[in-house]
Write a structure and sequence with these properties.
Helix content is 36%, strand content 16%. By secondary structure, it is α+β, with helices and mostly antiparallel strands.
Length: 352
Amino acid sequence: MKSEIYASLVKSLEERGALRTTPFDDTVCSRATIDDIDPDKIDSFIEQAEAKGRLNIKGDRSVEAVLSNFNLLRDGKPTNAAILLFGKNPNSFFSNIQLHCFHFFGTEKKKPIASQQPYEGRLSDIIDQAEEFVLGKIDRRVGVRSEGTQAPVEFEVPREVISEAIVNAVVHRDYNSNGFVQVFVFADRIEVWNPGELPSSLTPELLKLPHASLPRNPLIAEPLFRTQYIEKAGTGTTDMISDCVNAGLPEPGFEQRGPHFVVTIWRDWLTDKIISQLNLNKKQEQTIVYLKTNIKITNAQYQQEFSVAKRTASSDLAKLQKSGVIEKVGTTGKGVFYHLAKGALKGHKGHE
């Protein structure tokens, strides 16, 4: 409690201009020396940045020269940003840089947890690992090799949207907070929790409009821009919205929940808000919840789950199918089942 009050007081004094402190990413990393920087990571960074066309180093490529070029040294000592980006073992200096990923079977945060994984290390590494964790938990469709040697893969949520949400959380988080970045994969959505708040000049609503780039940690953001993890154009959130809409998904949600900024990415178009507009009865709403967790349902399973006769089950499922909420797979027999309709947001009678 005392630490929270102290942090709140410091923040208040900083906002009023009564106290000036060195930003976290610009502060010298305590106990760190240039030997704690990984030369191989520096070389890899230069190679990636040059391949992206965002860096052209013609002179000295030593560790000291590169760090100095990106303003990551103070009197020969590495800053916090330098260690987080290029350190041999950032965890030995920071206890709060883990990124925790969780996968839940249903739509609520409750046990049993399907899987969980903490990632730690350099920022680019944990970004990549968290992205792969999420992509491994959502649906994907593999195309044909008609245009190249590898078959294209299309995820139910555009990969770019997931990447943007995770990168934003890592780049813009408050590193003075003891909290972690957390990523939750539910049956119907993905949530990315970021310790910290938006800059005072931005609101969740303004994120839906064109806006300036205001990185909380600019010294962390710059090298990630050079390797194309971010764009620094203020288009990240608007691109997320556009990509989701084009995929037939609802717009992502942006909101402040206590000390965390939360981004919600919907895996399907049937959000709570949309369901409330469909004029469904209780049993039909329960069917949607069931399908979000169990993926599919047969007529026999419907009878058992809701304790109804076969005729009632057939009638209820037919109504949901007619409304565009579910789709039927198969024609007759025991192999017939139903699943939630995908990408049905556009043109749906309840959402025109």
